[in-house]
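[Q] Does anyone have a clean structure-token version of this?
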Amino acid sequence: MKLSAHRFNNLLSLLLILAANHNDKKHKNVSAILAELSNDDLSNLERFKKILPAFEKVDTETLFLSQTEKDSWHIIKQILNKKEIYKFEIIIANFAKSFDKIWKNEEPRLQKYLAYFKKNDTQLQKIMKVISVICGVKKFSPTNVPIYLIRSWKYEDLSAWFSWTPTRQSIVVECGKNIENKKYFAVSVLAHEFFHLAIRKNKKIMREIDRCAKKHYEVIDKLSDGMPPRIFLEELIVSSFIPEGYLSKKYFKIPIKKTRLNNKDILNLRRYVAYKMEKIARHHVIKKEPISEKYIHEILKIINVE
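[A] Here you go.
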């Protein structure tokens, strides 16, 4: 795996979080960091908030397609104009000293996550071979996808997301405070993101997902809690295998939770779909059979769309 925990990515993610959530009292972690900042840092943050709209015009994920700080600056210079770049360079330089104190505490935690993922690399490679078959793709190698670890500044739970273009992909893992009790869950979350990257290489499946999302847009939109219906449908397909579904049960001994349908809770909906799709998902895994359009329509039936 191409794992890394870059200082600049973490600095950038923290600035974005602090600027976007500076008045949100719900997130205690963010409030705690803000309380430790000096008046100069807070003034610096106010200056950053003025150019934040430029960053918000693009998908945040694109900022994390870079493998080095130099690459990150190349992407940033495509987002900001010359005047904004000049201001941002000053903001970064002024915030660096305070961030170094934060980074001194956080980098060791990220190193533990790096060690954890490296330790479980063999298990991940094994499950990725199965995922490639399920997705019907032959040329997909997870070893070529950069994985960036950043601190989860808002929450203590682990989460992950992917950046995707036809030519470049990456995965960002937002790491909570502790890794000790994660066992295989963190690997299953990483495998979930790789599943997204693999399935997107199957153009036939993606066209059907897009067609169904457009056909049932209004119904799916009510279930998706702000997530675009096409992305939401893709999410249900992937999570029906992992981390809520049969792949987690088979390879990581994570039980599939029997649950009732609750359309107002996305996590519940994912678990419900995984529970109802277990037999079908198991068939595809055991028989090494790629999923087809039929699999999508089975999920649509479960959530009462078709």
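[Q] Thanks! Anything notable?
[A] Residues 2-169 form one domain.
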